[in-house]
Each structure stands twice: as C-alpha cells, then as structure tokens.
Design a protein that fits this description.
heterodimer; A: alpha+beta; 4-stranded antiparallel beta sheet; 4 strands; B: mainly alpha
C-alpha cells in the first residue's frame, strides 16, 4: 500500500515536473537546434514537453516549432 | 547511431589529435604512434604545418594561440595553461578519446549534438557520393558546406568550451584533408 502510494506520488511529481519544465539549458538547446535547422526564431522563450525528445518551443518572434527526434534525426516542424 | 556519431565525431575531431596532441606529446615519437591509431590525423597534419609558415608572422599580433598550436606545440600551449595540460595528461589522444570529448562537452546540448551529428553525417554522405564519382557535388561545391558546418560547431563551442573550439579550428585543414581523400575517409567508416 505504502509502496503504491510512493509510486503514484513519484509519478505525479514526475509528470508535473515534465509539464512545468523550464530549464534554461534546455531552452538554449532548443534555440540552437532551431537555428541549426535554419528556422527563424531568435530565442526560445518557453517550451512544453510532449514526450521523450519531443518539445514544442515558442520563440521570441512568436514562431512555434515542434522539435522532436525521428529515426535518429532531429526534426523541426513549424507549428 | 552511436557508430554514426563516432564516425562523424571522429572525422570532425580526428584532426584535433593533431591540434591537441602536439601539446600533449612533446616528442615526435608520439606523433608516430598516433599514425598507427589515427591514420588520417598524421597525414593531415602536414597541411596545417604547411599553412602555418605564413601565419606565424601574422599570428603573433592577434591569433597566436590558434596557429601556434598547430605549428609550435609546446610553447604555444603555455599561454593556455589550465585546460591543455589536463587534456594533455591523457597522453596520446585516440579516436575514442576524441569522441568522448565531443560527447561529454557541456557546451552543446543533447538535441543540438544530435542535430549536428545529422548534419555531419549528411556532409560525409555527400563526400562519399563525390568519391564514388557522383557529380555534382564537386569538391569546390563541398568546401563551403564544410566550412559552414565547422563554423556552426565553433559557434556552439567557443563560449563554453573554447579549448575544444580552438583545437577544431586549428585542425580545419586537417579535417578537410581527411574528407577530401577517399582513402583517409574510408578509414572512418
């Protein structure tokens, strides 16, 4: 029982952390990735985590991109 | 994917061994031993040296560390004492070390590394196509793509891992020599 509660609490905590993620390093990483793909952005001001290696980044200039990994390649899709 | 990264990373940094190891290994025998483990590096080493004679005069005012690192290993590395000796202590740099160095640098995020790897792989594929006889691209057409990609790498590294950026920059010609030589390139596949 205790263990189940612990697992549930950990899962909830993990989920909330994932949704609320706002790591400056991650933002910088996303900014670099979008720039590397030659997409206009400027700077990523916020992002949400959709899943493993799957993000939606919002840029300073208002552009939004889905950044994810598919078949070992980083894909940047304009939203 | 890891092997792809190692190939790409190795290519990008193969010549780093020429840039960094001179500082690490003071004696010529070290370079000779590297010749066995990292074949392209020693062969590619001559170009930087060849290019250097022009640079030292111009380099002394401004860019002494860069050009000097390729030409005069021990003396030039002394201005950058902190990080160079730490890497130097690892003795002769092999491809595994270079790959590890690129993987472990905190200057580039994971996604950025993967994105760079993709672009390096794409460029290597173009070189392979060129060596296989496909036209275009021609070698002069590939050069700008190579330089642009190198510039991207340097841009990402220069602020947070200047030592690695400097080593890659110093190895620019050596890396190009590896890419443009089918035999040297084949050794990384």
């Amino acid at each position: 029982m205790k263990r189940a509660l612990l697992v549930a609490a950990t899962a909830c905590l993990g989920l909330s952390v994932a949704l609320a993620a706002d790591d400056p390093k991650e933002r910088q990483d996303l900014t670099a990735v979008i720039a590397l793909q030659g997409q206009p952005c400027g700077e990523v001001v916020s992002y949400t985590v959709q899943g493993d290696n799957d993000f939606v980044a919002t840029c300073k200039d208002g552009n939004r991109y889905r950044v994810h990994v598919k078949d070992g390649r980083v894909v940047v899709e304009k939203r | 994917m890891v092997s792809g990264w190692s190939a790409a990373g190795a290519l990008m940094l193969a010549a780093c061994a020429t840039g960094t190891s001179p500082a690490t290994a003071p004696s010529p025998p070290a370079e000779a031993s590297r010749a066995t483990s990292v074949a392209p590096a020693p062969k590619s080493a001559p170009p930087p040296v060849a290019a250097v004679p022009a640079k030292p005069a111009a380099a002394s005012p401004g860019q002494s560390p860069r050009s000097a690192s390729a030409a005069i290993p021990a003396k030039s590395q002394s201005p950058v004492p902190a990080k160079a000796p730490a890497q130097a202590a690892a003795a002769p740099l092999d491809l595994k070390t270079l790959e590890q160095r690129l993987k472990e640098t905190s200057a580039i995020g994971v996604l950025t590394k993967l994105s760079l790897k993709n672009q390096v792989d794409d460029l290597i594929a173009k070189f392979r196509a060129y060596h296989a006889g496909a036209r275009p691209p021609t070698l002069p057409e590939l050069k700008p793509a190579f330089q642009l990609l190198l510039m991207k790498v340097l841009t990402l590294l220069q602020d947070h891992d200047p030592a690695l950026a400097r080593d890659i920059d110093a190895s620019r010609d050596a890396i190009w020599n590896v890419l443009s030589d089918p035999r040297k390139l084949a050794q990384f596949s």
